[in-house]
Write a structure and sequence with these properties.
- This protein has 181 residues and is an all-alpha fold.
- The chain contains 6 helices and no strands.
- The longest helix has 26 residues, at 94-119.
- InterPro entries: DUF1599.
- This is Nucleotide modification associated domain-containing protein.
- It comes from Parabacteroides faecis.
Length: 181
Amino acid sequence: MADTKEQFEKVISQCRELFEKKLKDYGPSWRIMRPQSLTDQIFIKANRIRSLEIKGVSMVDEGIRPEFVAIVNYGVIGLIQLAKGFSDTTDMTNEEALALYDKYITETKELMYAKNHDYDEAWRSMRISSYTDLILMKIYRTKQIESHGGKTIVSEGVDANYMDMINYALFGLIKLEYGED
């Protein structure tokens, strides 16, 4: 598990670095997005990954890796938006956005560590394409929950689904960075 923690920290820092650079370019312009729009944005990214996996060819000079990074960052933004609500303006500083990013990526990482303990790193034996399918399934679950006003009977909520999507994307990034086991 020590390798897993080190690998997670590395890919998370790469995602955070891009998030921070985009904050410098755009500020927290994403504050105006409703969670449903973020779910759709994650869908676009996951669907593109699946399309590239199936077709094996990209017509745009970007591969799968940037899409997994985007899923991580949009997932964290989704968690922030669920907690704070969306805004009609960019109502936070870049520093506040980074602090919230750190808070929610840490909570998500801690969830993964707990699940990883219980599942004994089973994710390492999975294919990257399975992470893609699981992210897409989580998106459809999230859309269903959103269509019910966020209410569930026995299932986890939107926040748990965002966390799972983030973690599956991080698994994909680790496999792309360090190779398949």
